[in-house]
Amino acid sequence: MTSNGILRCLLYIGALTALAKPLGEYMARVYEGHAPGLERLIGPLERVVYRLCGVKAGEEMTWQRYSYAMLAFNGVGLLVVYLLQRLQLHLPLNPMRLGAVSPDSAFNTAVSFASNTNWQGYGGETTMSYLTQMLGLTVQNFVSAATGMAILVALIRGFARKQAETIGNFWVDLTRTTLYILLPLSAVLALFLVSQGVVQTFRPSAQATLLQPAKDSKGGIVNEQTIALGPAASQVAIKQLGTNGGGFFNVNSSHPFENPTPLSNFLEMLAINLIGAALCCTFGRMTGDARQGWALFGAMTIIFASLLALCVVMEQKGNPALAKLGVNQAATELQPGGNMEGKEARFGVVDSAIWATATTAASNGSVNSMHDSFTPLGGFVPLVMILLGEIVYGGVGSGLYGMILFVVVAVFLAGLMVGRTPEYLGKKVEAYEMKMASIGILVPAALVLLGTALAVVTAAGRTGPANPGPHGFSEILYAFASAGNNNGSAFAGLSANTFFYNTSLGVTMFFARYWIAIPVLAMAGSLARKKLVPASGGTLPTHTPLFVFFLIAVILLVGALTFFPALALGPVVEHLMLAAR
Amino acid sequence: MIRELKTALLMLAVMTILTGLLYPLAITGVAQLAFYRSANGSLIERSGKILGSELIGQPFDDPRYFWGRLSATNPAYNAAASSGSNYGPLNPVLLKAAQARIDALRAADPGNKDLIPVDLVTSSGSGLDPHISPAAAFYEAARVASKRGMAVRRVRALIAAHIETRWLGIFGEPRVNVLELNLALDRMK
């Protein structure tokens, strides 16, 4: 790694850490019913929303009712996104006259955006009208993110309350997240991105005359370049902040109109993990012990930094097969060097590797380079990040509640070792909590492995991969990992816009999202009912470095035991093959 | 239960108006007023004709011009349907594409024995990359100079004037915009 590369990695982690505290404390206050600074501006709007929707702001919900409201809202949203895609030809704001999306693709996309996955089986600029992008996709970018954060806040209340029957009001949490957190941050980021060159317009495509006429694949002369435009900045901002990841254009943030400069790249990368990292701080503050939040933040950062280093080093080494052809892959002041296939010259290897690690640590899934073309161990990093469950900062809300499931397992294991009743934050962890945590951890793992197995044993699945050999297997594994953990990035060579993949991945995304969310809410309900056990000499402290490393060990152990055989068949074999050349 | 469903419908309608209509419209309004050029694609226009966008690359294979990254779109640099190659590092097609580019570069400039910078033989993520590394541009300088009958020194000076540096000296990579460089070449004559 070059010294500049190390500096860039450190500055990224440093910026994330510096912003976590102020934003985390602000969000805690939002969920406690205050919003310093913005209350006067947004308060009236908030009250209008409640009045229009018939929401009683002071009304509390049991976990069952909270879950039902969440599911009803997500179900309705899913249906609307489906209908918008099917009917877009007959609706306004479709200057390119794009036709109806096929039923299986529309189903896949509807689930994908409602579940905060943003897996994209389609190409943005060639498939979705401006109206579908705005009313369907952008709206879900906001509300699916807000849904995740609401579920997390409900879980935090479960720890913070004692002998309570309720865990908050879903409609209030949803509204306040959107109005006080997501909208203001997105507006600022979107305008900043426009200043860098991200497009934001309702004009149809521009027609440019090529400086040198080119030939197409059939030998015909091409004189013109059609340049797709659109209202991209407003969607890019929230796709990054809300860990959605669904791009306006097919190639996402490697497209110069989504991510034109190193500065826009840095801000978009920061936005990926900004809220997820800050929520650790929110968690600490709302449970009354800031150290608990920092302990989780520390565990996440250690995993992040280690895997990031591996990714940067492997990508910077480049492709040995290309080196044999007399190609210069050394990093100098005049060229980034390394494995540049699928990467943009303005970002080079380092900014691409940071992004790849960040976007899979979170459940974001946006890309600024093509993960499919990474070196085997470089591509191993995003794959492993996803398979660990995207709990390193993670999806907004979903990352931290996923991490808390692992914490519950960790305190349970520690309790078994020393023969004491496990506790976390003063709440006894009992059989019910362990069952819910196990479901939350095992369901995605099972979906990933079963889905991959189904794809490799069926002809419809095997026609997908674009690359031969173990890399083709990695493409399938990555697809189901991405869907089964609501990430949305891909080894994009896989032809996934088929009936088989649209359906199987759609079903996977659906269960991965809601079969974790409901156990988490059930756990919240159960925890809220419990008494607070005062800490004693026998209580395992959960803010110490010892516990942080124990937690990391539990996460890695579960991940390794579950996925090692699958990883061995994909990236590990491919690495050995590449090394042998 | 029915009550929550009704609230869900109303809430989605309100959120759609707020985040799906008002938010993008407001951003578009401010963007068009404050950042007109960049909001509309940073287009390069000359006497009413659009020559391209300074953010979107164009295909070049004439040896008189600088060549950019390989592009996986069809046709190359198709800014209406962006795409990467998605070839894995061992894919024979990737190595064939790289070899074809190497052969073309060597054939156009037989005297040049330097190693070829990697960004000239690989395709970009978007297929629309407007940039190459300064090393790649300097590699091509001798060919462009000889085909145009210019002094290599002048071409190298033009490249140096077109290098965009790292942000704050840290983030991103030094790079050269191929379309702008070629437009500048045509102006020099």
Please provide a brief summary of the model.
With 581 residues, chain A is mainly alpha-helical. Chain A contains 19 helices and 5 strands. The longest helix of chain A is centred in the last third of the chain and has 35 residues.
Give a description of the structure.
The complex is a heterodimer of chains A (581) and B (189). Chain A is mostly helical. In chain A, 63% of the residues lie in helices and 4% in strands. In chain A, helix 8 crosses helix 9 and helix 14 packs across helix 19. The longest helix of chain B is centred in the N-terminal third of the chain and has 33 residues. Chain B is 48% helix and 10% strand. Chain B starts with a helix and ends with a helix. Chain B folds into 2 domains: 38 residues; 142 residues, no CATH class. By secondary structure, chain B is mostly helical. In chain B, the strands form 2 sheets. In chain B, strands 4-6-5 form a 3-stranded antiparallel beta sheet. The chains are: A mainly alpha (581), B mainly alpha (189). Chains A and B meet through helix 1, helix 2, helix 3, helix 6 and helix 7 of A and helix 1, strand 2, helix 3, strand 3 and strand 4 of B.
